[in-house]
Amino acid sequence: MQIWVDADACPAVIKDILYRAAERTKIQLTLVANQSLRVPASSYIRSLRVEQGFDVADNEIVRRVAPGDLVITGDIPLAAEVLAKQGQALNPRGELYRQDTIAQKLTMRDFMDTMRSSGIHTGGPASLSQSDRKAFAAELDTILNRYQRSKPAL
């Protein structure tokens, strides 16, 4: 398992949780962005800078993700592509995207895009709360613990 982060929009507090988790579990963490990122010096943490452009980072993550990998993203279309490749996707608020609900989320996202493009102000997402951070950390721990238990002993 590797952890991939759609890092351009990922909140710093979530990145900090991921840095600690990568060190603790010794799982490779890669932050993908179209800008240079500062990451802690670690053999388990790296950043990957991609070219500027619409969905370039998302496309790179999809290209590299393998079955069982975990992707951290708030981007629903990216999450859908990760699930199609048998990866896991977790948003920064702690919601694990699921195969049985992703189509509904895509439909709602497209509907809201249509509303915004026709001039209706729909507002943006609420800022990340303390309970969102806790939910993210708890779900991440659940996923990583499940992975650690399933790994064959060396």
Automatic annotation (TrEMBL):
Entries under InterPro entries matching the protein: UPF0178
Pfam families: DUF188
Top-level taxon of origin: Bacteria
PANTHER family in alphabetical order: UPF0178 PROTEIN YAII
Family: Belongs to the UPF0178 family.
Protein name: UPF0178 protein Q3O59_11870
Taxonomic source organism: Alkalimonas delamerensis
Higher taxonomy: Bacteria, Pseudomonadati, Pseudomonadota, Gammaproteobacteria, Alkalimonas
